[in-house]
């Protein structure tokens, strides 16, 4: 019995027989994803056209048509999730992963979602933001009884509006969300000419408290989490958002943590075009470079990718761009540790005092760490350590990237004269030809007097 089986042993004992029964009853196949890599999005082969969403380090759940109904099969179960290379967590999720697969459909579709419970306790699925009949809302005890271990429930409803939604349990919610149970639910407009984009990225923010060297989240933690994740993934292993220059780009972000996250993207200004309540009319939008995503809320923003480069995208709470670390640590900035260092080196010659000039040296050092633990600030760029972890990635805007190509194009090479440099006493000679041109950004209409 491996660790995964051990963790799910309670459920497995119950479900083996039930699974055998239900699998003969015409259920759609429950697809399983083994990989934590971003999967190429699935373009629609019938029905209205849309640009499929790219779930960062995630995937989209396949469906089958049964008459006019789109049928999906979610399986709630214990999973092993690779948070970053070398760090795995034992979580609860759906269809082999946490976060669960993205469900994608089209406005006007009728969907039938089979939910099989392979957890050791009951669960439900709440379809956050979707307008549906009360009895389909997935609040255990209120909408319907909890789904017992080993049982499959059916949710069925019409998608009356397009937009940006999510799903998560509404049963033993504190535990099941702390264990990683959640997913995205994207409903595309029936009219392909409404709010079209070339690239449509999506991720859910979640958080875990996993002690260094261990595998299972501490479910009682209320606010002091140590792993701040996008789709249960941490930098440096959150995939980049790869964009072709000139693309219209949408980024959809949901927050199922216990605190708000101000998401900041460099290189652009942009507008919120959609929330989990619906599309924002053009006249009600305003420009931003940071969007605060409230707890239990979603925001989608859009921009035209005119500026080539490698642009950071991250939570602006600086503790959320660090990986596992202790917070009850004294501050040593400015402290004189030379006498202490001398004494310790008599016993341990390699001892290095740390933290007296800041903590940047932590990103450079190869410190021994417990098993299954990534360094707290890590990730190397083309010019040195990036000194970030957790909720951080890079938007990579390049010329000539194919429509369905999301592979990492590598690091951006700054054109001559466009990178900060060391002052050595005189300015380099720049001819007017290769000097970067300054262009004024266009003002919004109706603001001519500025
Ligand atoms: Cu944050």
From TrEMBL:
Pfam families: Cu-oxidase_2, Cu-oxidase_3. Residues 406-450 are annotated as: Disordered. Residues 81-191, 217-329 form the Plastocyanin-like domain. Coiled coil: none annotated. InterPro entries: Cu-oxidase-like_N, Cu-oxidase_C, Cu-oxidase_fam, Cu_oxidase_Cu_BS, Cupredoxin. Residues 1-20 form the signal peptide. It comes from the Bacteria. Keywords: Copper, Metal-binding, Oxidoreductase, Signal. Residues 430-441 have a biased composition (Polar residues). Gene3D superfamilies: Cupredoxins - blue copper proteins. This is Multicopper oxidase family protein. It comes from Pseudohalocynthiibacter aestuariivivens. The lineage of its organism: Bacteria, Pseudomonadati, Pseudomonadota, Alphaproteobacteria, Rhodobacterales.
């Amino acid at each position: 019995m491996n660790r995964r089986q051990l963790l799910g042993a309670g459920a497995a004992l119950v479900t083996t027989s039930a699974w055998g029964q239900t699998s003969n009853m015409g259920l759609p196949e429950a697809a399983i994803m083994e990989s934590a890599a971003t999967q190429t999005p699935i373009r629609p082969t019938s029905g209205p056209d849309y640009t499929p969403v790219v779930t960062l380090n995630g995937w989209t759940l396949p469906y089958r048509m049964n008459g006019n109904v789109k049928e999906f099969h979610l399986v709630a179960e214990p999973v092993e999730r690779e948070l970053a290379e070398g760090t795995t967590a034992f979580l609860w999720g759906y269809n082999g992963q946490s976060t669960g697969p993205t469900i994608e459909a089209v406005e006007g579709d009728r969907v039938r979602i089979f939910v099989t419970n392979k957890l050791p306790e009951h669960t439900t699925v709440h379809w956050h933001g979707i307008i549906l009949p009360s009895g389909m809302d997935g609040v255990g005890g209120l909408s319907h009884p909890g789904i017992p271990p080993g049982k499959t429930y059916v949710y069925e409803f019409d998608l009356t509006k397009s937009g940006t939604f999510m799903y998560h349990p509404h049963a033993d919610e504190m535990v099941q969300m702390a264990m990683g149970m959640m997913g995205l639910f994207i409903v595309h407009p029936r009219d392909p000419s409404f709010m079209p984009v070339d690239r449509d990225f999506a991720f859910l923010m979640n958080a875990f408290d996993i002690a260094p060297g261990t595998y299972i989240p501490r479910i009682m933690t209320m606010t002091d989490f140590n792993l701040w994740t996008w789709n249960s993934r941490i930098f440096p292993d959150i995939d980049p958002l790869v964009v072709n220059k000139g693309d219209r780009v949408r980024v959809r972000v949901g927050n199922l943590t216990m605190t708000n996250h101000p998401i900041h993207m460099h290189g652009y200004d942009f507008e919120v075009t959609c929330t989990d309540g619906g599309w924002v009319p053009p006249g009600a939008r305003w420009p931003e470079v940071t969007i605060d995503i409230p707890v239990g809320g979603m925001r989608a923003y859009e921009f035209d990718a005119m500026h080539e480069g490698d642009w950071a995208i991250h939570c602006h709470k600086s503790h959320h761009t660090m990986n596992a670390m202790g917070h009850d640590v004294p501050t040593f900035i400015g402290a004189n540790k030379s006498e202490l260092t001398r004494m310790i080196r008599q016993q341990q010659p390699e001892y290095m005092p740390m933290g007296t000039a800041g903590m940047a040296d932590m990103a450079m050092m190869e410190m021994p760490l417990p098993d299954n633990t990534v360094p707290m600030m890590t990730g190397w760029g083309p010019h040195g350590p990036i000194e970030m972890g957790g909720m951080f990635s890079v938007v990579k805007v390049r010329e000539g990237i194919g429509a369905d190509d999301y592979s990492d194009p590598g690091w951006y090479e700054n054109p001559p004269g466009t990178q900060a440099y060391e002052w050595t006493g005189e300015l380099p000679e720049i001819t007017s030809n290769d000097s970067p041109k300054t262009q004024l950004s266009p003002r919004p209409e109706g603001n001519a007097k500025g």
